Amino acid sequence: MHPVKVLLPGYICIMVEVFKTNVREPIFAYKLVDQIHQRYADYKANFDLEDCDRILRVKCTTGPVHASGLIALLNEWGFKAEVLPDEIIQTGGFARDWSSQPRWTGCLRQRMLSQ
After folding, report:
1. Is residue 29 over pLDDT 50?
2. Domain 15-86 grouped into CATH 3.90.1300.10
């Protein structure tokens, strides 16, 4: 899926793409974030290695996040990455699009929905 861009008067549009990776070590996460920031000056990237999907989040305020370039960069370093699709969760008879909220991981979401 492609990120959705919505422009409202007076608001800055922020594009966010979330990737599932196989990066396990913090040292590689730091190096990869540094490489992303060097290659894509408008991107802000961070890893969540405690998440079961070892999430890489990339934000851009000037345009779309180019997923294929980021996946290729991780591949150059010997890692895999894939875009996580947006999810719509049914809650109480209405659908809520969580893409505008902080990303809930699959593990956390499953635990919370099972409670």
Report:
1. yes
2. no
